Amino acid sequence: MDVNCIVLAGGKSSRLGRNKLLEKVGTQNLLVRVINRLAYFNSQIYVVVAQDSVLPELKNYPGIKVIKDIIPDKGSLGGLYSGLSVSDRTYNLATACDMPFLNLELFRHMIELSEGYDAVVPMVKDTAEPLHAVYSRNCLQAMQYLIEQNKLSIKELYSMIKVRYLNTSDIEQLDPHHLSFFNINTESDLMAGREIAEQGDQ
Prior knowledge:
Elements: E1 3-8, E2 24-25, E3 28-29, H1 30-38, E4 45-49, E5 65-68, H2 75-86, E6 91-96, H3 104-112, E7 119-124, E8 127-128, E9 132-136, H4 140-148, E10 163-166, H5 168-174, H6 187-198
Parallel strand pairs: 1-4, 1-6, 4-5, 7-10
Antiparallel strand pairs: 2-3, 6-9, 7-8, 7-9
Helix pairs in contact: 2-4
């Protein structure tokens, strides 16, 4: 599939109290686990980090490109903007480094729906999931405007672009337990993630 992948890895891990990227779920740390899943697409993977981010060792992944935020301290929107800015593909999968159970078939389905849209975004119980989504480089101008206005929620973007929303019933055909959107922010999240991984997750 003619897409690149963008992994946002610049968060401060403030709720966990330590660098979540180094924490293991199953046999792999979170970042490596996400990278290994996205490698399924055989696409360029960009890992977007803050200026002071500390990453786990990635020497076994020579094809990974680590890029620093173009505009520092602008949160997930700024990280996504940075990734899209360097990508040489129109469409890009976007996710976060703390989502250990990415559903590849769900991502594949979203890519298949992307033509003619600027973004494909899952909706779970009327809530958008902006970091298990597909974004076009056509979003860059609107993103830049929001960043200049210091409006840093990715969801602010959706009223400015053409979005294909994926509803809950569509999602549940491929991911009935919504594990795709499970992310790790706290100690209890980390414990729950490890339990899921021990059970064989997906």
